[in-house]
């Protein structure tokens, strides 16, 4: 594998105007950030104004799939992927890893990992790709789950639209570590450091109507 | 207080095309969702294409404040708030509360709370409003922290831009509860229910250069 294949090529849109040292184009890093998130924030333009909606997504290789009803606004705008030009979108996934408390108000920050994807989304029309994408969406929420649930039937497939956004114009941005206080502030009497933040899963709660004979699957049990 | 003052007036942009029963215009609910988040996703249009960036924010009453460097792209686009028309934005905050596992792949979902704000952002130019907004940004990360850190000096204030977005065209969307499986699927042998998800703060980690004599403040101690 060549070095070029391991990274996304930077573009005007993916080189930040500030904190450039936090930017990365490493594919493995981008994939890991994407795979850890539950929702993305999908931006598109409607009537000249921006719209940002949270939505489920999944990843297969270098493609992201975003799920929705066939009646939803962004999905209708993408057209059928063959005749339509597609919908320009920006898809962003962010994890907050810590609260950074500096001596100075100015240097307060967050530790975070984010991925921003620019591109054009197309509606998935191939039946086989649609089924694969729906599996990826379910497995993104809980790995292994698509094989342990009832697959979509014809009626459900007809009511579901999925759009694909290829990973091409992509960047990650990561902040880690402690506060960056100015030297002259180090003696000030304010506590400084980082409060770690993380998302944790609680104990699974069975549905009210679950047959008690159905055991909690291994993929939901604590490791 | 009248009923009207407790809610935002729905508009074409804030009435969803689907799952309308999940939408709310209740100000108290919107405020609670906004106040719990650490980052928002700010969408704007650049060269005709959407851009979605994660960023810190704070709230004072019915105004949101978003922080950035004076050199950052969205902030430059807002102009000075007096001569410029402002920047159309969409600001979204989302909390994931649970993974909803249904018997059918189709009914998999997330429990979540989100707020979407449409409007026009203006750069804050009044020095007093700027200071107040910066305090709100710091206190949004850790309530009470702005009073326990060094306030911004003149140089820092000059390097900081803050934009204001008033809460006017706003909606919340909330999904709670268990899976909504179809009646004919209830007997399928798949576990169904909800895996709760929440963000938790870990033990604060002091900065490497923190004077050991500086104690952990009460607002960071476990309750």
Compact overview of the structure:
Two copies of one chain form a homodimer. The first copy, chain A, has helices at 27-36, 73-78, 127-141, 154-159, and strands spanning 23-24, 39-46, 49-60, 63-69, 87-101, 109-123, 160-166, 169-175, 193-201, 205-206. Chain A is α+β, with helices and mostly antiparallel strands.
Describe the protein in words.
Chains A, B: It holds the Pfam family Pyridox_ox_2. 2 copies of one chain form a homodimer. Chain A has a 6-stranded antiparallel barrel. Helix content of chain A is 17%, strand content 38%. The two termini of chain A are 34 Å apart. With 223 residues, chain A is α+β, with helices and mostly antiparallel strands. The longest helix of chain A is centred in the middle third of the chain and has 15 residues, at 127-141. Chain A has a single domain, classed as Electron Transport, Fmn-binding Protein, Chain A (Pnp Oxidase, Chain A, Roll), CATH 2.30.110.10. Chain A has helices at residues 27-36, 73-78, 127-141, 154-159, and strands at 23-24, 39-46, 49-60, 63-69, 87-101, 109-123, 160-166, 169-175, 193-201, 205-206. In chain A, a hairpin with a 2-residue loop joins strand 3 (49-60) and strand 4. Strand 9 of chain A pairs antiparallel with strand 9 of chain B, so a sheet runs across the interface.
Topology, pairings included?
The structure is a homodimer of 223-residue chains.
Chain A: E1 23-24, H1 27-36, E2 39-46, E3 49-60, E4 63-69, H2 73-78, E5 87-101, E6 109-123, H3 127-141, H4 154-159, E7 160-166, E8 169-175, E9 193-201, E10 205-206
Protein name (chains A, B): Flavin-nucleotide-binding protein
Region (Disordered) (chains A, B): 1-21
Pfam family, one (chains A, B): Pyridox_ox_2
